[in-house]
Specification:
With 601 residues, the chain is an alpha/beta fold. The protein has helices at 14-55, 144-149, 175-185, 206-212, 230-236, 276-284, 300-303, 311-327, 349-353, 410-414, 418-442, 463-467, 487-492, 521-525, 531-541, 554-566, and strands at 58-60, 63-65, 134-136, 156-158, 161-163, 196-200, 217-222, 241-243, 258-264, 285-294, 331-336, 339-343, 453-456, 474-480, 497-500, 513-519, 542-553, 569-575, 583-590. This is Methyltransferase.
Length: 601
């Protein structure tokens, strides 16, 4: 069709109109759909907001209000649950250098939110000092270690109890006789010079238990392995102990801590992997300190037949050990029968004479000597800081004067001047003496045989432990791995402790402490560590009938009590010794209950 002038006329395109109509309908439908999503999404956001408002603690009248909560029981197969050294997780890690026995904590989505039950038939522990010699079988119901080690007199099962005759692989005639001989070789064990010790591969901690009567405080160290609950036996007896292994990570202690280290046939391959395990002993041993070894290859001339080896092999092993120790400036201090004693150099004169190309090499400045929390072992040995001449063992005040003497390393803790640091140190001592007097009024069991194993969960200088030094208890002083490094001061005082991060589980078995003490922890760490998990961990390691003293700001104390109630604790709020409103003391007791749960959780 054409216009009258002959030009063609454009007709409407029917197909284009149909396409336009379909597109319009589709757009309307899409708009409706998106509107529905938006509305439903908005409803979901509103719902989540309401839920979070209900779940999140509120601030009311100046305090944190926690929604009431009740924790279920874990199943009975969790009665000895150690979250960061859990055998159920070992298959995820390699066996090389026993890395599977190191700390491997579960991710947050695998954490248990249940109460760890005691074993069937659990009873309140036997009290100190009787507990050093016996414990209830049902509290630590392990038969493997009894069957395998009874011939060496580690322990004997008799009726409802385990008895500890004080034997060991290298001292079947009793630990007392063994330590008597050791004191002949190391006179410094008698006069207060030697105060702190570490026992690697401790068995049931008979060596550490015997030393308590001799004024020496020992950290007994052992992994959770096929020897079944060595550390749990130690703590059940009332002897200081912690789960740990020298593998690929440094031990959780600062440098120059222990006056003495001990290995009684502990099966640590000291000369393997370039001697890296012995380098770690060198790091944590104080200048002038002693390393004691009994068992292979010491006294190989008379013992090799019982070691399934040859005299030539054992001679080579001993010579390699001696050469390694010499290369790190250890000197053979004394030796008799099955016991050999080496002493770490007292100053740096020996280290300065070592050739630059010697092995093992000296560590450079790239790694902090005191770093002991998830710090990899390195094939080098740490040189003591030459400015700390008074931290050498033979130059330190003897015990008990050492407890209240101002430690030389106090100045490094906060970077203050010497006079300011010493003043702060003594002020802290006086403050805690007054606080302990008040605590004993609030908790009369403190200072009696009812409380033996104590942990100060966030100490500074160890003043809490120092104020309790005359009571029949011992204190594990815990210093935050994220806070100022004051743990060297704790060891310089003649006390013991460890680094730890309370966002994770502690390296111990359940039901191992009678008293846990916290001072302002949630005020300082609530931004990192969730309150619920910290308190559940406290419940795990606290003995039934045990207590917690939680000193906290008034803002947090009610919320802590609410969570405590959900764990079946009985808590009461008390005033501090100063009677101020901004800070309160919460006294809590964990009740003894028996499991009604047989399923897994």
């Amino acid at each position: 069709m054409k216009h009258k002038d002959g030009k063609p006329i454009n007709q409407p395109n029917k197909s284009r109109a149909v396409t336009f109509a379909v597109t319009l309908i589709a757009l309307c439908g899409l708009s409706f759909y998106l509107g529905g999503i938006f509305c439903s999404g908005k409803d979901a956001v509103v719902a989540n907001t309401i839920k979070n408002t209900l779940d999140t603690p509120k601030q009311t009248s100046g305090s944190l209000v926690m929604r009431p909560i009740s924790f279920p029981e874990c199943s009975l197969d969790y009665q000895d649950y150690t979250p960061c050294t859990d055998p159920k997780r070992w298959r995820k890690y390699g066996t090389f250098r026993l890395t599977l026995l190191e700390r491997h904590c579960p991710p947050i989505f695998e954490r248990k939110e249940c109460l760890v039950p005691p074993p069937d038939g659990y009873k309140p522990p036997i009290r100190w000092p009787k507990s050093r010699d016996e414990c209830w079988y049902r509290n630590v119901p392990y038969d493997w270690i009894n069957k395998q080690k009874s011939n060496q007199h580690w322990l004997i099962k008799e009726g409802e109890k385990f008895l500890f005759p004080g034997g060991g692989t290298m001292f079947p005639n009793g630990v007392g006789e063994y330590v008597d001989m050791m004191q002949e070789l190391i006179p410094e064990m008698k006069d207060g010079t030697v105060r702190t010790a570490i026992d690697t591969g401790c068995g049931v901690a008979s060596w550490g238990g015997d030393l308590l009567d001799r004024g020496i405080l020992t950290v007994s160290l052992a992994p959770r392995d096929n020897h079944e609950a060595q550390v749990q036996f130690a703590l059940e007896r009332g002897i200081p102990a912690i789960l740990g292994v020298i593998s690929t990570q440094r031990l959780p202690f600062p440098s120059n801590s222990f006056d003495m280290a001990h290995c009684s046939r502990c099966l640590i391959p000291w000369t393997e992997f370039g001697g890296i395990y012995l380098m770690e002993i060198h790091r944590i041993l104080r200048p002038g300190g002693f390393w004691v070894l009994s068992g292979p290859p010491v006294n190989y001339e008379h013992r090799w037949r019982g070691w399934n080896t040859t005299v030539a092999e054992q001679k080579t092993d001993y010579e390699n050990l001696q050469n390694l120790l010499t290369s790190m400036c250890f000197t053979l201090y004394n030796k008799k029968d099955d016991i050999a004693v080496w002493q770490k150099a007292k100053d740096n004169s020996c280290y300065e004479k070592l050739p630059k190309e010697t092995y093992p090499p000296k560590c450079d400045d790239s790694l902090e000597p005191d770093s002991g929390w998830y710090t990899p072992l390195r094939a080098c040995f740490v040189l003591p800081d030459p400015k700390y001449t008074k931290s050498v063992l033979t130059y330190m005040p003897k015990w008990p004067e050492r407890l209240h003497a101002s430690p030389e390393r106090i100045t490094t803790a906060h970077g203050a001047s010497t006079s300011g640091s010493i003043s702060t140190f003594h002020h802290d001592d006086g403050k805690w003496k007054k606080r302990i007097q008040h605590y004993k009024k609030l908790l009369p069991e403190l200072g009696t045989e009812k409380i033996r194993n104590v942990m100060d969960m966030n100490t500074v200088y160890g003043a809490f432990a120092a104020a309790l030094i005359n009571d029949p208890l011992w204190v594990m002083n815990v210093v935050s791995s994220y806070g100022p490094n004051t743990l060297p001061v704790v060891y310089d005082r003649g006390l013991i402790g460890t680094f730890h991060d309370w966002c994770e589980a502690f390296s111990t078995y359940p039901r191992t402490y009678d008293l846990l003490h916290l001072d302002g922890f949630f005020t300082a760490e609530n931004h990192r560590c969730e309150m619920k998990y910290v308190l559940l961990e406290m419940d795990r390691i606290l003995r039934p009938g045990g207590h917690a003293i939680i000193r906290e700001s008034s803002y947090f104390v009610d919320a802590v009590a609410t969570v405590g109630k959900g764990m079946r604790w009985i808590c009461r709020k008390e005033k501090t010794e100063y009677g101020v409103d901004k800070e309160k003391v919460l006294i809590c007791q964990k009740k003894l209950w028996h499991s009604s749960n047989t399923g897994s959780r």
